[in-house]
């Protein structure tokens, strides 16, 4: 097994007043040639948006964009005609494809919104743009990982144009679960949302990231009450659509 550890305090940081953002991988004004991506996982931003503020209309293309709210309500509008709100317990995906414009705003004037913004390189370019969101409340499990994203529209969760699988887990202290890699050549980037865990002996704390590859499976044990996001992605950039 090979691995890479990214402690929370080593992430890039940008405070724009209305936006407080931590970047696991190089993004905008933060550039580290050693932290450009993990396989096809290109962006993992931990964003906090001030009340009533947000991202004005801006474009994307040829990227799978996943948003996972952690606190508060995020209002979304896009050039496909979607106007919706995502909140804690939801997962949103956009296939930007040939091009899309969208905006994201904190819907509330009295509290921050906190969410993860995740970009994954697609395995197909110039697809028709697509939007979807789900509530995980009907599929979540206790003390076990459960799937929220996959390459298959028929599976549980949202789907993307890439051989990627995302799982969430909420664990009581002392409980554990194992994870088996879905596809040969993939790795998993674990991001600790809350608490403290051990993955195959590596101790991890809140907002730490831990990448694992060249293995078939691993075990995760919660040493305190914890929430964890697992992002399984192809490690080879040859899987990116050309």
TrEMBL record:
It comes from the Bacteria. Coiled coil: none annotated. Residues 148-233 form the Quercetin 2,3-dioxygenase C-terminal cupin domain. InterPro entries: Pirin, Pirin_N_dom, Quercetinase_C, RmlC-like_jellyroll, RmlC_Cupin_sf. It holds the Pfam family Pirin_C_2. SUPFAM superfamilies: RmlC-like cupins. CDD domains: cupin_Yhhw_N (cd02910). Residues 12-120 form the Pirin N-terminal domain. Signal peptide: none annotated. Belongs to the pirin family. This is Pirin family protein. It comes from [Muricauda] lutisoli.
């Amino acid at each position: 097994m090979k691995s890479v550890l990214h402690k929370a305090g080593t992430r890039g940081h940008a405070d724009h007043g209305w936006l407080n953002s931590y970047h696991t991988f190089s993004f905008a004004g933060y550039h580290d040639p050693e932290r450009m991506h993990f396989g096809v996982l290109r962006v993992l931003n931990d964003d906090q948006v001030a009340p009533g503020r947000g991202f004005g209309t801006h474009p994307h293309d040829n990227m799978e964009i996943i948003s996972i709210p952690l606190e508060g309500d995020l209002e979304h509008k896009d050039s496909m005609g979607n106007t919706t709100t995502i909140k804690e317990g939801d997962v949103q995906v956009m296939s930007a494809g040939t091009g899309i414009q969208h905006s994201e705003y904190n819907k509330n004037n009295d509290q921050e919104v906190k969410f993860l913004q995740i970009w994954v390189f697609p395995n197909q370019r110039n697809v028709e743009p697509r939007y979807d969101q789900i509530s995980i409340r009907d599929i979540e499990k206790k003390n076990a990982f459960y799937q929220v994203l996959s390459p298959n529209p028929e599976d549980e969760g949202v789907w993307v144009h890439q051989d990627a699988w995302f799982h969430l887990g909420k664990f009581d202290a002392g409980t554990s679960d194992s994870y088996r890699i879905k596809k040969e050549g993939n790795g998993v980037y674990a991001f600790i949302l809350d608490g403290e865990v051990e993955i195959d002996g590596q101790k991890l704390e809140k907002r730490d990231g831990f990448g694992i590859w060249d293995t078939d499976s691993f075990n995760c044990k919660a040493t305190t009450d914890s929430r964890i996001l697992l992002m399984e992605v192809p490690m080879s950039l040859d899987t990116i659509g050309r």
